[in-house]
Specification:
The chain is α+β, with helices and mostly antiparallel strands. It has helices spanning 4-8, 11-19, 23-29, 40-46, 95-102, 134-139, 173-201, and strands at 51-57, 63-69, 76-79, 82-87, 105-112, 117-129, 150-162. It starts with a helix and ends in a 7-residue tail after the last helix.
Length: 208
């Protein structure tokens, strides 16, 4: 993959960085930053997401941001520098798919709210009807999900980890259950122990 800065730090962006004395620092930082195929950390992060935000640009020049989500693992790494996901029946506006017919470049933001982590990706997206590529459909299948109508492949160009500042921690229902489970078990065990002691003192306490 390329340097993220090569595509995002345009002359106008660099001019703004230079105003606050950050241009040279960023140029040096990004000179060798995050080049090459997805590493183990990035792969693990991508494949444990349940949501992603993807943008595209219309023929009118307006950017459009769309949310895609599913069970944990719906977003899959399918190559050293390629990811994909199954696309399901929606409102049939097809804005993202239509936009990528004119310009296939898409940026994505992946969030891990509990750990306040954020991964930015840019790449070239291709939409494929699921019936036209059964092999890819099988690779992108998510257990328990409905049959996919479309498949989305994204050939990655660059990536960058963002700082955790200003990311408000949030938990899904599943994450809340997992966090509370040990405490609830301790509470249940404590209640059971108290009931046992009460029964030893008064076998009829429940009927009192």
């Amino acid at each position: 993959m390329d340097s993220f800065a090569a595509h995002m730090f345009t002359p106008n962006v660099r001019a703004e960085q230079d105003k606050v004395g950050m241009g040279d620092r960023y140029a040096k930082t990004y000179e060798t930053r995050l080049r090459g195929p997805l590493d183990a950390d990035a792969r693990a992060f991508i494949e444990t997401r349940d949501t992603v935000y993807m943008a595209s640009v219309s023929e009118t020049g307006w950017p459009y941001v769309q949310h895609r989500g599913g069970p944990v693992g719906f977003l899959k790494v399918i190559g050293p520098e390629e990811i994909g996901f199954a696309d399901y029946r929606g409102n049939k506006q097809f804005i993202s798919r239509g936009n990528t017919r004119g310009d296939d470049r898409v940026p994505l933001i992946l969030m891990d709210y509990p750990r306040r982590a954020r991964l930015k990706l840019i790449g070239h997206a291709t939409f494929v009807d699921a019936e036209d590529d059964p092999a890819l459909a099988a690779r992108l299948l998510t257990e328990g999900a409905a049959p996919a109508e479309r498949l989305v492949k994204i050939r990655l160009v660059a990536m960058d980890w963002n700082c955790p500042k200003y990311i408000t921690p949030r938990l899904t229902e599943t994450e809340i259950d997992a966090a509370l489970a040990p405490k609830l078990k301790d509470l249940s065990d404590h209640i059971t122990a108290l009931e046992t002691r009460l029964t030893a003192l008064d076998p009829n306490w429940r009927h009192g």
